TrEMBL record:
Belongs to the glycosyltransferase 8 family. One of its GO terms (biological process) is cell wall organization. Coiled coil: none annotated. Keywords: Cell wall biogenesis/degradation, Glycosyltransferase, Golgi apparatus, Membrane, Transferase, Transmembrane, Transmembrane helix. This is Hexosyltransferase. The keyword Isomerase does not apply. It is found in: Golgi apparatus membrane. It is a single-pass type II membrane protein. PANTHER family: GALACTURONOSYLTRANSFERASE 10-RELATED, GALACTURONOSYLTRANSFERASE 4-RELATED.
Amino acid sequence: MRRRPVDFRRPARRRFSKVFWFTLCGVLSLIGFALFGRERGSTSTSAMVKSYYRCNKFMEGINITEEMLSPHSITRQLNDQIALAKALIVIAKESNNLQFAWELSGQMRHSQLLLSNAATKEIPLTGTESEIAIRDMAFLLYQADQLHYDSATLIMRLKSRIESLQELVRSVSEKSTKYGQIAAEEVPKSLYCLGITLTVEWFRNTDFQKKLKGGNQIADKLKDNSLYHFCVFSDNILATSVVVNSTASNSINPNLVVFHIVTDNINYAPMNAWFSMNTFCGLTIEVQNFEAFSWLNASYVPVLKQLQDSDTQNYYFSGNNDDSQTPIKYRNPKYLSMLNHLRFYIPEVFPSLDKVVFLDDDVVVQKDLSPLFSIDLNGNVNGAVETCMETFHRYHKYLNYSHPIIRAHFDPDACGWAFGMNIFDLVEWRKRNVTGIYHYWQEKNIDRTLWKLGTLPPGLLTFYGLTEPLDPHWHILGLGYTTVDQQLLKNGAVLHFNGNSKPWLKIGMGKYKLLWDKYVDYSQPILQQCNVH
């Protein structure tokens, strides 16, 4: 047998059929899907567990149970009824239906008791034990619906109640302002007694009158421009005494201080008697009666002319015109008092003086005021502390800018300033005829259309462009109506009790009264006799 020759060629590869390949791909695909499904299932299960855990934590935090989340929850139904009942109880009380409010409250307490017992026992409420409570509450809620106890009704009633309360507050506020104004205007019995007692002493004791005259030495001091001259225009003896005493007590050289006090005819004798009885560190004191000034008459002074006008008299003294629409503070007759307006006639009152410090009678002096006389006013007439730190104290708050003459002449944002502690250059005053400027504006305001209240508005007009700002520490305001910073009180040279709460009145602000009281010697027999305290 012949052998086949040896074949050195590479053996041919074994080929698999297409069916084999399709089968293999299918098996691999099934294995992949199985593995992916298991991983996804485990991830989904983990997410569901986490979500369930978070839900349980939230439910525990707000005290919700599975039973309450049920669409047929009796607990939730009771809670909803209780919430509605609480609102309806308020409405019933507002409607003055106290019987219905009492019934609702009783039923609400019964439902709350059922819920409390169920929570304590940790057993869900069943329909049997709660059916009566739900039915009874539903009956009361139906009754409330028939009575129109709904949110809209409550809102309307509350709105009406708020409006009535606002009207009550407005009325009480107006009465408070009115009574406060009356209290501020009235003279306390103790001060009235003091005036009468001092008048008797003045006419009984001739030594007082001799002491007051004092000879040529005092007369020379009254005209000596090398001394420090102060003026006060007041009919209040005790208040003027505090101004003088506090100035003297804090003065470095009280023997160089001269006080010029101007009062009315009624208080001239008692004022003289008081300042004759007390020395006040040896300073010089002069008391004058403005009613003795021959130049002070209706032909020269617009305010005196206005007092003769019947409309002005009705406005200030009867209050019968304009149906009392004007606030009571605008009708205070003191705003027509010559003692209030004499500040515009200082050069006429003191014709020999070149410079004077004007003080109101409701101030207390805490520092030596002699440096005021060396302040350069830069050619201005009035040295005053400005009060325009806030918008309220600018010109437009004091004057009627709807009037064309005001609008044409004055900047509405110009800075206001205060009367009460002012240094006046009387040489410049006379040169610029400041009193004539005051007369012009006072006559323009005879119908009270430029301003209504007090002497500050005409002062702002008169001294417009003629006022030199002083350092704020010279004059601290607000002790008669508001709270003042303690640091300002400590550093202030002059403390001003402007406002209704004067320190000599019972309505005075107690926290500041000690600042005034320390300059009153309450141990004096005449003060004790009149019960001044």
